[in-house]
């Protein structure tokens, strides 16, 4: 609600830049007032009032998106004009083209007794296209790799009562891995 109020105030102050907004600022302000009143009514958890609030919110969001199109047309890619309207600028797209960060908080959780499974978890990274999990018996040198589209995976068919070592890396634009710290666990 404060964001919409800010837009209305700024656009009225910049009437020379935005002479005839579509939809009109009075229409947007009326929708804001309707939404504010419906939000107050919905505070008492009445199912009908909650539904009305949702409808009023959708209407206000629609009017705001239409007003944003008008501002975008007037601004013609000029960031200063967009800011004068009270709208915020879209965030710059973040590039994940560099080296991947080191995978963090790797956890190995033995599953049900006798299942011979370990569930692997690592913190998510927005730039990850895949997650690469590796494991080996303690003392061996060769790693076995398993890829996952999620930040978790289940390793199956491990030998019972054996200690394994685990590591993980994010797979991003750069093909160079940056493995987490090693984690060890026994399989039960």
Based on secondary structure, the structural category is: alpha+beta
Shape: elongated
Percentage beta strand: 15-25%
Task: Give the radius of gyration.
Answer: 27 Å
Mean pLDDT equals 90
Percent range of helical residues? 25-40%
Q: Strand order, biggest sheet?
A: 4-3-6-7
Largest sheet report: 4 strands, antiparallel
Number of helices: 4
Summarize the helix and strand pattern as letters: HHHHEEEEEEE
> What's the total count of β strands?
7
What's the domain count?
A: 2
Low-confidence regions: none
Report, as a whole number of angstroms, the end-to-end distance. 55 Å
How would you sum up this structure, described in words?
With 188 residues, the protein is an alpha+beta fold. A four-stranded antiparallel β-sheet has the order 4-3-6-7, with no helix packed on it. A three-stranded antiparallel β-sheet has the order 1-2-5, with no helix packed on it. The protein is elongated, with a radius of gyration of 27 Å.
Indicate the topology:
Layout: H1 2-13, H2 25-42, H3 47-75, H4 79-85, E1 107-110, E2 118-121, E3 130-137, E4 144-148, E5 152-155, E6 163-171, E7 183-186
Antiparallel strand pairs: 1-2, 2-5, 3-4, 3-6, 6-7
Short descriptors:
188 residues, alpha+beta, Immunoglobulin-like, 2 domains, three-stranded antiparallel beta sheet, 4 helices, 20% strand, FN3_sf, Fibronectin type-III domain-containing protein, FN3_dom
Task: Give a brief description.
This protein is of the alpha+beta class and 188 residues long.
């Amino acid at each position: 609600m404060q964001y919409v109020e800010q837009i209305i105030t700024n656009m009225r102050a910049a009437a020379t830049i935005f002479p005839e907004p579509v939809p009109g600022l009075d229409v947007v302000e009326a929708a804001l007032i309707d939404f504010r009143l419906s939000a107050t009514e919905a505070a008492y958890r009445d199912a009908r009032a909650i539904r009305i609030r949702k409808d009023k919110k959708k209407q206000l969001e629609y009017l705001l998106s239409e007003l944003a199109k008008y501002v975008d047309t007037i601004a013609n890619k000029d960031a200063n004009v967009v800011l004068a309207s009270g709208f915020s600028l879209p965030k710059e797209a973040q590039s994940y083209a560099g080296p991947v960060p080191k995978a963090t908080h790797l956890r190995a959780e033995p599953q049900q007794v006798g299942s011979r499974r370990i569930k692997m978890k690592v913190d998510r990274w927005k730039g990850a296209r895949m997650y690469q999990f590796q494991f080996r018996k303690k003392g061996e040198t060769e790693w076995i790799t398993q890829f996952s589209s999620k930040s978790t995976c289940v390793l199956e068919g491990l030998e019972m009562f054996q200690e394994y070592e685990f590591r993980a890396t994010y797979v991003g634009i750069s093909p160079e891995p940056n493995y987490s710290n090693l984690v060890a666990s026994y399989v039960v």
